[in-house]
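BUG: 3D viewer hangs when loading the predicted structure for this chain

Environment: internal workstation, default settings.
Expected: structure renders.
Actual: progress bar stalls at 90%.

Input used:
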Amino acid sequence: MKADIITIGDEILIGHILDSNSFWLSSELDKNGISVRKISTISDSKSQIIETIKSSLKKSDLIVLTGGLGPTNDDVTKHALCKFFDDELILNQDVLYDINKLFIKKNRVVNNICKNQALVPSKSNIIRNKNGTAPAIWFSQNKKIVVSLPGVPFEMKSLMIQFLDFLKHQIDLPKILHKVIVFNGIFESQLAELIKPWEEKLPKELKLAYLPSKGIVKLRLTAKGSDKQKLNKIIEDQLQFLYDLAGKYLSLSQKFKKEEIVGFLLKKYNKTLSIAESCTGGNISRKIVLVPGCSNYFKGSVVSYHNKIKENILEIDKNIINKYGVVSEEVVREMSSQAMRKFKTDYSVATSGYAGSENNLNNKNKNIGVVCISVASNLSVFSSTYKFEGSREEIINDATEMSLKILLEKIESEHTNK
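C-alpha cells produced before the viewer hung:
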C-alpha cells in the first residue's frame, strides 16, 4: 500500500510553525507496512485541496490529510471533501455529544461556531475525538481511502493510531524493517566501491540506501515482506557478508551497545559509576549489569521512586522538591550529585519523569513523557529535560537509552585529548 501525506495550512507555508505532523505520520505509516510516496504542504484553499487529492489518488492508495478541520472560516477541508465526493454536511449527534461533554468538563459554553464541528460529510466514516472537537473523517471509494485528521498534533496522533488499528484488521499489510549500519574512516565513494559485489547480489526483498553525513557514512537496509521473522533472517545474513567486506570501518557504536561502550571506557580510564533512578525504575542499572565485568566499575544504584527515598536515602532537601517539583532538573541534579557522593564514584546518572499509563493513548496529562536526566562527574553536572512519546514501556526504554547516550558522551568529552 502506498500513501500520500498532505498537510494543510498557510501557517506552515509561511514558516510560522514547523510541520511535525508529516514527520510523525511518515514514521507511523512505515512502521505499519505502508510506504509513503509523497509529502505535500498546501494552503487553506478549497480548490487546491481538491486538486491535490485528485492528483494523489492517481498514484497512491491512501491519502492522509491533516489540518483545516477547525470551526473558523479559514478551515475549509470538510467543504473541499464534500465537493470532491459530491457530498453534504450533516449533524452527527455522537460528535455533538463529545463536544458538549468536553466543554462541560472545561466549564465552557458551546457556541454555534463550535457546534459546526459536529457537521460531517454524510458519506464519510468518523472516528470520535476524545481530546478535542474535530473528529477524524474518512472516505473509502474504488479501493482507495482518504482520511482527514485535525492538525493539533496530540489529537492527530491519537486518531491516526485508531485508524491504523482499524485498517490493519481490514487489510493484510506487509512488514517493513529497517537496519542502519554506521561506518567511519572511509568516504562514501570508497565504501560503495568496496561493497559493490555485495550490493549487486542483494535479495529482492532488500533495498539499500546511502546516508552520508559529516565524518560518517550510514547504510540503511530496508526489508519488505509478509514474514517478519524471515525478513530479520535475511537482514542478519546479509550483514555478515557486509561485515566481511567492510567490517574494519564499522563505528564503535555499531559494533557494541551503549552500555558495553560505557563499560569499556570506564575500565579504560579506571573510573566508577553509580545510578539514582526514579521513572526508569532500575532499567538503566539492569542494562549496566548485563555487561560482563561490570563489577570493575559499577558500585551500585538506588531506585528512589518515592519522594521519601529521595529525601531519606539520597538526602535531597525536601524544600528543593517542594519548590521545583520532583520532575525537575534541580531535583535530578541533586539526585546524581548525591548518588555520586554516597557511592563515592566518578560518575553518576539520575532520572525523574512521568512515564504514564500502559499505552497513554487517552491520557490527557500533558506531562506524560517528560523526563529529566542528569549525569554528574567530578568535573561538572549536566542536566536536561526531554519529551518522549509512546507507551509507558517505550518512554522508560527511550529515557534509558538517552541516559546511556549522555553518560557515554560525557565520559568521552572529559577524556578527549588527554
